[in-house]
Automatic annotation (TrEMBL):
Record key words, sorted: Kinase, Membrane, Phosphoprotein, Transferase, Transmembrane, Transmembrane helix, Two-component regulatory system
Catalytic activity, as annotated: ATP + protein L-histidine = ADP + protein N-phospho-L-histidine
Transmembrane segments: 165-187
Name listed for the protein in its UniProt record: histidine kinase
Organism name: Lactobacillus hominis DSM 23910 = CRBIP 24.179
PROSITE patterns recorded: HAMP (PS50885), HIS_KIN (PS50109)
Lineage: Bacteria, Bacillati, Bacillota, Bacilli, Lactobacillales
GO cellular component term of the entry, any: plasma membrane
Amino acid sequence: MLGFLLIIFTSVAIIGYASINFATNQAYEQSYSRLEGYAHSLEQLALSKKNPDGKIDPKFLDNLQVVMQGEDTTLRIFSKDNQMIYPHSPMKWSLPESYFKKMKKGETIQIRNDHQSSQLTFSSKEPYTSVLVPWFNTGKLIGIIWIGSRAQNVESVIVREKHNILNALLITVIVAFILSFILSYFISKRIARLSKATKKVAAGNFNVEIPHGDTDEIDDLARDFNQMVVALKKSSEEIKAQEQRRDQFMADAAHEMRTPLTTINGILEGLQYDAIPEEAKPKSIALMQSETKRLIRLVNENLDFEKIRSNQIMLVKTKFNAAKVLENLTTQMKQKAKDKGDTLKIDCPKELETYADKDRFTQIMVNLVQNALQFTENGTITISGKRLEHASQFKVTDTGIGMNDKQRKFIFDRFYKADPSRAKLGSGESGLGLAIVMSLIKQHGGEITVDSELGIGSTFTVTIYDKGFEKFTDKDK
């Protein structure tokens, strides 16, 4: 409010000063115009009545003076020799030399208040507003007229104008004060509402929405605030989801590491105290090796994901026949599929040129097939591939448990398991397989999508683009 008032007071002061100055100048200009008009009219009358010797008739001037007094105006006449010839006075009056020089040049002099000029004062009682006008005849100076009106007459008009302007300005200030107070109140109320909402958000309440219009900057700020709250709410939900997945992962990792460690420790104690028969020792050692490999795989998957996520791996991209990679993959996974009652099928042309890092491409497809095997029992997993324009496309389709919309949303997040209750020991139990797949595909400049229906199955589609057609984002680069 103080800011509004400061601006208003400054503006009013400038306008008031300009208005008063204009009114003052206007009043004096009107007085000068009136007096100069009298002077020129008298000049015409005087010259028409002049005597043959060129002197002005004093009687005529007396008559003029009587007329001028009715207008509250008085006059003085000076000869061409700078001597006052009217009215008659025992003292010799003359104009200051500086004034007389200007008169001879034909200049008109305007005097606001002759009491403010020590060189030209005709009355010691009261000041006059006056003009000095030279009279010329055939280009020669024949006389000078001083004609003045009491300064009080002009100044009274000015004072009246000043009062009117000041009254108007006072009313303006009062109205401006009231309007400023009202405006400041409503603006402060809206800002206070924003402040209150901000405190709620700071306290963790993201269910805040400020109603707003579309009229000014505060409405824009409210709109931006609402958008910020929505973004913070989504971020908070995502953080909570990540925390839950992290906690779940830690619990799963602890459980999965405890089981093989317990097994290894039990076998070692049995070996230490000769509690294991000789014929069972090879099987026990093989079991320790299997459990150790599982621990190593769990650690490696985490290390691998961190390297991929932080772009610490270098891709060596070349052109190769992806069909051979898929055939080898089918051969390697055939036994695992058989153990679960699944059937592996491949649908791919014999030649399928692909531009990628061959080892990382193999890792992508292995993780996708392992994921399909993990959630499919007594079903079919189909691996297919084909060429697109400037790209190669691969699909892994299963007839497993499928996913709902929520699961599809988080399926590529780290530590996430679509169905933890059905996750089996072995590949993919860490919840990192699909996160690694997503990171590798992004680094290739490719794309991956998933279509799934709960209880029917899922299809993962991977598109790897040819050289020069990759779809990188700034973050991927």
